[in-house]
Amino acid sequence: MTDKPSQNEDEYFALRDAELLKKQRAAEEKAAIDAERKSHHMRCPKCGGHLQAIDLRGVQLDQCPDCLGTWFDAGELDVIIRHKDPGLMGRVFGDLFKKK
Ligand SMILES: [Zn+2]
């Protein structure tokens, strides 16, 4: 059994519209996620303040000037822990506590 040409045409356009709608929704969802990520970039996850990059003895950290929360990027803590100078970690954290 074969469909009538108009039935095939209706199916074709319905499938095409559904596919276009799916792509449009996916693009809108991605744009919303990207916008939310952008709005959170360098913002404190605790209070929403604008994080500032600080340098403590050559170690770059991100700190919130409002609540003084401090964040290490991936690998930064590892650099301190494995540094050839075993006292570096104590001095970095000492400097952090002096700031509070
Ligand atoms: Zn904060």
Give an account of the 3D structure.
The chain is an alpha+beta fold. The chain has 2 domains: 1-41; 52-99, no CATH class. It is 54% helix and 12% strand. The protein has 3 helices and 3 strands; from the N terminus they run αβββαα. It has helices spanning 5-40, 76-81, 88-99, and strands at 52-56, 59-63, 70-71. Strands 1-2-3 form a 3-stranded antiparallel sheet. A hairpin with a 2-residue loop joins β1 and β2. It is elongated and about 80 Å long. It starts with a helix and ends with a helix. The model has no long low-confidence stretch (mean pLDDT 90). Residues 44, 46-47, 49, 64, 66-67, 69 line the site of zinc ion (ZN).
What keywords describe this structure?
three-stranded antiparallel β-sheet; 100 residues; 12% strand; 54% helix; alpha+beta; 2 domains
In short:
This protein is an alpha+beta fold and 100 residues long. The protein has helices at 5-40, 76-81, 88-99; strands at 52-56, 59-63, 70-71. It binds zinc ion.
